[in-house]
Design a protein that fits this description.
The protein has 102 residues and is mainly α. It contains five helices and no strands.
């Protein structure tokens, strides 16, 4: 059992939770839909802003991961998280370990 991460930027976590609440309702195949594109762009921007504030990638990725715990996610959303939201600082192996395939 790992230790629970400390959230140094609670406002970022709240933003992530708010964005994640409806993210799973939008089909991932509808890439041209502006609201859908904007939602994921905001999500990535929020995570990167959190990373800048935390200045340590593991804290940012933990904040990102725990923000989505308890959110009902479809398989397409998991695929989006694993493959399309490439944060630029999480390696594929870390991402695969954090978001295992179901």
């Amino acid at each position: 059992m790992g230790c629970r991460p400390v959230f140094p930027c609670q406002e970022m976590l709240r933003k992530l939770l708010n964005l994640s609440r409806t993210a799973h309702l939008v089909p991932w195949r509808v890439r041209s839909m502006s609201s859908y594109t904007l939602r994921w762009a905001k999500l990535k921007e929020t995570v990167m802003e959190c990373r800048r504030k935390v200045n340590h990638f593991s804290s940012a990725i933990n904040t990102f991961y725990f923000a989505f715990q308890g959110v009902q996610m479809s398989l397409s959303t998991m695929l989006m998280l694993r493959y399309e939201i490439n944060l630029g600082f999480a390696s594929e192996s870390y991402f695969t370990a954090t978001f295992p395939k179901h």
